[in-house]
Amino acid sequence: MACTCFGSVHPGIAMIFVQIVFGGINIFYKLVINDGMSIRVAVAYRLLFGAAFLCPIALIVERNKRPKLTWVVFFQIFFLALFGGSIYHNLYLASLNLTSMTFAAALYNLSPAFTYIVALLFRMETLSLNNARGIANVAGTAICIGGAMLLTFYQGIEINIWHTNINLLKYHQNHHQNTVGSTKQQMFGLAIALIACVFYAFWVIIQAKINERYPCFYSSTALMSLMGSIQAIIYALCFERKWSDWKLESNIRLISVIYLGFLASGLNITLMAWCIAKRGPLYVATFNPLMLLVVAVAGSLVFQEKLHLGSILGGVLIITGLYTVLWGKSKNANKNQPAVLPNNSDQESPEVAVTPQSEVNKDSAV
Predict the structure, then answer these.
(1) Residue 7 located in a structural domain
(2) Is residue 292 part of a domain?
(3) Ordered per-residue pLDDT tens for the chain, 366 residues
(4) What is the crossing angle of helices 309-335 and 111-121, to 10°?
């Protein structure tokens, strides 16, 4: 289905669109938080709308391909939804609320470094400094972490590229100071983001295991979104029990959850699956830093977010580390050819490379 729908589209154009949509996630999250919507409710609606988009696609595309859903696969998908769905999104959104959009988007690119560390613990990767691939993985991970530290602890001079009078958030002064002006909150936001990266890394590991037992991408993704939405709803109901907390009474809330569910968690996943089938997971992962650029430009244009030298230098280091890790992974991919899913679409297994958007579900991140 994806191949017939997107056959005339260049994968590069598709991935640019995907990253622009992912950048919009941060914008709409900021808008609904400013509108007073609960973080937990926003995550629940996103996963619920995403499941509503993906379930019909899975039923149609893979109706004759799905193997039997065993209890082992069921529990694996349950934890997949827990780590990469309900927990990850709640943590990412909490970090976004405490910091800025650019800060959160930059830390999103730490995911491959943490995935590499977790893969080492699970012996899915080997630590070797005797070849260029091993050195690239270790050096890239260290550069990513160093960039995150620089982004957090060094501000530097303010960079004034342009100035607009547009501010969609319309913060009260006290709220603005508490949100972006406190170093303590920046550090707390960093800690939450790092924990989110750890959960994302576990998500990648579990995803690789599921691909071996249940090689139906759309079905597993739809089940993950459905289970994640149930988990997120139960979690949100523990704190938000009033009907008024769940009402999509404003246009911005309704538009945001439709965007987050249908576009970010629905259409984007389908496009990324198609791009992986066409060009492979490493090709998809190389477009990740584009989201950081989109978020930085949007934040400074319409949210009056200030760009500082430390933010730019930290972002450059994180992106450099990301591409260093991806280069090491490409060497490994050339050495060990990826397995192909047993279907007619020639879609490559997302477990091939432990990269930020072998995830294709994410977004994750986002």
Answers:
(1) no
(2) yes
(3) 555 455 567 777 888 888 888 888 888 888 888 888 888 999 999 999 999 988 998 888 888 888 888 888 899 889 989 988 899 889 988 888 887 777 777 777 777 777 777 777 877 767 777 777 778 878 887 887 787 777 767 777 877 766 666 556 664 343 444 444 467 787 888 889 889 888 888 887 787 778 778 878 788 888 988 999 999 999 999 988 888 888 887 788 889 899 988 888 888 877 877 777 677 665 676 777 778 778 877 777 777 677 778 778 887 887 888 778 777 767 665 655 444 433 333 333 333 334 443 444 444 444
(4) 50
Give the whole-angstrom CA distance, residue 217 versus residue 1: 13
Contact between residue 355 and residue 345 where contact means Cβ atoms under 8 Å apart = no
Number of folded domains in the chain?
A: 1
Query: What is the spatial distance between Cα 344 and Cα 331, in angstroms, rounded to a whole number?
Result: 27
Q: Which two tokens stand for residue 113?
A: 């470094």
Whether 350 maps to a domain, the answer reads no
Cβ(219)–Cβ(62) below 8 Å:
yes
Residue type, 100: S
The CA distance from 86 to 221, in Å, is 14
Question: Is residue 228 within 8 Å of residue 362, measured between CB atoms?
Answer: no
Contact by Cβ (8 Å): 151, 321: no
Residue 361 lies in a domain: no
Q: Which domain holds residue 189?
A: 16-335
Distance separating alpha carbons of residues 68 and 80, to the nearest angstrom? 18
